[in-house]
């Protein structure tokens, strides 16, 4: 197994899809998304983009949208649709440049070591040395996943030194 490290610029967040439209609608609210994805959405997003899971824009999908803003997030209510249920949407947020490197912006993935020796060593000090200027001075979060199946480190069942 290989581990990759993802440290902290890209000004759109990942896409999020936390709800299905089967109940009262498709509720992709900022509050819930933040609760479920700590550290992944900047404090004051400047824009929101929503697409159906199949990649259609809101306009192309033709649903009546209740909310789509950077305060509440995105809500498509079943009760607002004349004849059908909502499509299933995913959303992402853009963050103002000051938040790049300070909120939600991530580096590229790094994979500097293979686990064939004493283990898989993805030390920040080595990554900095080998990738000068690419990693911000004070990373806020780290993510690690396997290189083959993108499995989060926490789901591998392995024990980590640090
Ligand atoms: Ca590795
Ligand atoms: Ca959804």
Automatic annotation (TrEMBL):
<keyword id="KW-0964">Secreted</keyword>
<keyword id="KW-0732">Signal</keyword>
<feature type="domain" description="WxxW">
    <location>
        <begin position="12"/>
        <end position="95"/>
    </location>
</feature>
<dbReference type="Pfam" id="PF13330">
    <property type="entry name" value="Mucin2_WxxW"/>
</dbReference>
<dbReference type="InterPro" id="IPR039675">
    <property type="entry name" value="CILP1/CILP2"/>
</dbReference>
<dbReference type="GO" id="GO:0005576">
    <property type="term" value="C:extracellular region"/>
</dbReference>
<dbReference type="InterPro" id="IPR025155">
    <property type="entry name" value="WxxW_domain"/>
</dbReference>
<feature type="domain" description="WxxW">
    <location>
        <begin position="106"/>
        <end position="160"/>
    </location>
</feature>
<protein>
    <recommendedName>
        <fullName>WxxW domain-containing protein</fullName>
    </recommendedName>
</protein>
<keyword id="KW-0325">Glycoprotein</keyword>
């Amino acid at each position: 197994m290989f581990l990759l490290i993802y440290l902290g610029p890209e000004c759109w967040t990942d896409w999020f899809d936390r709800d299905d439209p089967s109940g009262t609608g498709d509720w992709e609210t900022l509050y819930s998304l933040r609760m479920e994805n700590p550290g992944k959405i900047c404090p004051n997003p400047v824009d929101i983009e929503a697409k159906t899971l199949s990649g259609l824009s809101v306009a192309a999908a033709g649903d009546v949208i209740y909310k789509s803003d950077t305060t509440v997030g995105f809500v498509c209510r079943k009760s607002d649709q004349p004849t059908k249920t909502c499509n299933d949407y995913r959303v992402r947020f853009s963050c103002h440049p000051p938040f790049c490197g300070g909120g939600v912006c991530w580096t590229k993935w790094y994979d500097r070591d293979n686990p064939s020796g004493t283990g898989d060593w993805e030390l920040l000090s080595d990554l900095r040395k080998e990738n000068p200027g690419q990693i911000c001075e004070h990373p806020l979060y780290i993510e690690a996943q396997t290189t083959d199946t993108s499995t989060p480190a926490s789901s591998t069942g392995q024990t980590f030194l640090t």
